[in-house]
Predict the structure of Potassium transporter TrkA.
Amino acid sequence: MDIYLDIILFLAGFLIVTVAASRLSLYFLKVKLPIITGLLVIGIIVGPFVLKLIPSESLSRLNFINDISLSFIAFAAGAELYLAELKGRMKSIRWITFGQLFFTFILSSSAIYFVSDYIPFMSDLATHVKLVISLLIGTIFVARSPVSAIAIINEMRAKGPFTKTVIGVVVVKEFLVIILFTICSSIGNVLINNVEFDAKLVFILIGELSLSFFLGYILGKGINLLLSFRMSTTVKSILLIVLGYLVFVLAHQVHFFSQKYLSFDIYIEPLLICILGGFYIVNYSEFRREFSKIVEKVTPMIYIMFFTLTGASLSLDTFAQTFVIALFFFFLRLIVIGIGTFLGGILANDPSHTRRSSWMPYVTQAGISLGLVSIVSQKYPEWGVEFGTILITVIVLNLFVGPPLFKWAILKVGESHRKHDVMHEKRDKKVFIFGLEGQSLALARQLMNSDIWVKMATRDKEKASHEYQGIPVVHIKDFGLEEMKRIGADSADSFVLFYQDEESLEICELAYEQFGTRHLVVRLHDRKYMKRFQELGALIVEPASMLISLMDHLVRSPIATSIILGMDESQDTVDIEMQNADLHGLSLRDLKLPTDVIILATKRNENPIISTGYTRLRKGDVLTLVGSKESLEKVKLKFGQQSEADFRQLRGLKMKLLTKIKSPKGGDYI
């Protein structure tokens, strides 16, 4: 009874610590460090060597948290192994995976074995134990983090054969690493327990793997049954966590009963079972989306607990003694990964420029790697502490170095599609309107009345040759990069798009990736394109829904809405970018502004910030102001730049912009 009371008390204290860790770890993002690194550092600080909020005696009581976390990390890894997305690059995926598994594993294991006499915690161990440790380290060296890889790909908006190969190799290798770890762990059990080798051991190993695969299939069926029930996602998430933990309980019980009733030990690998269960659901179940949603929802909480507890388990006194060894392991891993990936690229006949940087995406390690380290540390307490401390240090170093290397590789092969960087670049206030029709002409006239430079572009050569009351119209042959540069669209501050959604999306992607156009305004026709436009930061005008929204605001907030729509001729709203270096660092409360001007909002580095009187201005900040036209002109001069092209100044359009009438002949909207 006292044991269970201790566990409850330790668990309550640990949960309080993890809540704090989840918040504090976010500050590491501000210094460009991964959240995982923050959780490990916080774990070290609250652990038994610093603040002692997690005492050393609690670590053994909280081992079940590791089991729960590892099961869910394996579920997440299995969920990434979606076969339908791996087609098309299977040759490169197959050979690079082979190169990393074979060459990286063999070279790293051999190197560590031959220098084991110079590694403090290995030097006095028996030869067969050194071999086991070398094999286990070699296995962990091969592992890579799918989660961090996907995060970098999303951040860089990376697309192309190189990116597809990388994500394919990462998810396939994660599955194969678990199998390799299972084999090496079984071999290690035989060698460390001094069991004589005979043919029976081979059959036992095959039997263990077969049993793990069978249980993985059964687990997949069980998860499928669980997801088929009508219940809340929260309840399903809790039951899935329990199911994952029961896999570890089953593995421990199978080992215990085999020791007690059989003449040999049976080890089934719970990580392999869980990854197979996740693999089954995403590939052979109708509940793939729901399973992925649950994994996505629960994984952050699991990571917080797992990495905080891992940091608390780190032995600082051992860390100081083994840091040099960890550095050696770190550089050794970089070298063997480079060799393995390069040879795999040769076998796959990948282009030479790709092969030279193909090793860079595989440096980062996280969940599965730390999970394997945790399993080994618990399984072999005689040398597990030193083993764990060294390998965790290597993984932390990989977390620092890996993401920048992956980003650089994506840039080098030219598969980055993130926004072109124009931060603080001074641009003329030019607006390009694509699509020649009634609404676009009305918009152009209204913007020109507000002293904004406007040019219209159309693919209709005949229409482009006509006069439109002083509005410049240019003919554009296509939406390619060179043609857009020819008409001067690359230097524009804003694009307004009246074309059909597919064409507008093509222009938006080009503007986002090549020009860094600050404002993209799109008239939407089909809501299925909305998310893709939003990912590019476009402002979307959907006439039907916006008409209802504006009428709603006119009822609830008539004064503010009237100002925004330009109904009040004496008031205006503008966005102004601060370019005056003399005002840099000045608090908003210290700005000398006309008395009828109010600051409504502030945006910095494309992100809105909650501004107060104590907010300090930075060059490049965009301020949204409301006031009289004369006063706003004074503020523009004070900030050293013309106002941003502001589409809230569409006075002449008012409701016209929101009312579309289809031509009876099926032509453009007018």
Observations:
- Residues 161-192 form the longest helix (32 residues).
- Residues 642-670 have pLDDT under 50 and may be disordered.
